[in-house]
Design brief:
- Helices cover about 80% and strands about 0% of the residues.
- It is mainly α.
- It has one domain.
- The longest helix has about 35 residues.
Length: about 110
């Protein structure tokens, strides 16, 4: 039962997003508008994208999403990976329960 409570707490923590996790560690991302160099960093990303760096566009999109409290692609990927692992673990637990029940019946 405690395992399920831990899983539920972990899932709710993941749903809150990476920005809250970054806030716990005090790490400032490029998306912090209180940073004096925020606009300079955004301009650098724009220039990098224009120069052919596709990852710079991803970073710009992530900055916009974090500032507007929209889940980022990375957060969706982490969440779907967590759900996949939880489903896999649940299937293995169900199999264990079935084998235990079948051994009890014998």
């Amino acid at each position: 039962m405690t395992r399920y409570i831990n899983i539920l707490l972990l899932a709710s923590f993941l749903l809150q997003g990476c920005s809250s996790i970054k806030g716990l560690f005090g790490k400032k991302s490029i998306g912090d508008p209180n940073d004096p160099d925020f606009l300079n960093k955004v301009q650098e990303l724009k220039s990098a994208f224009r120069g052919g760096n596709i990852r710079a566009l991803d970073e710009l999109i992530e900055v916009y999403q974090e500032n507007n409290h929209i889940p980022t692609q990375r957060e969706f990927d982490d969440l779907s990976n967590s759900v996949y692992r939880l489903k896999k673990e649940l299937r293995s637990l169900r199999k264990e329960m079935q084998t235990l029940r079948s051994s009890d019946d014998e």
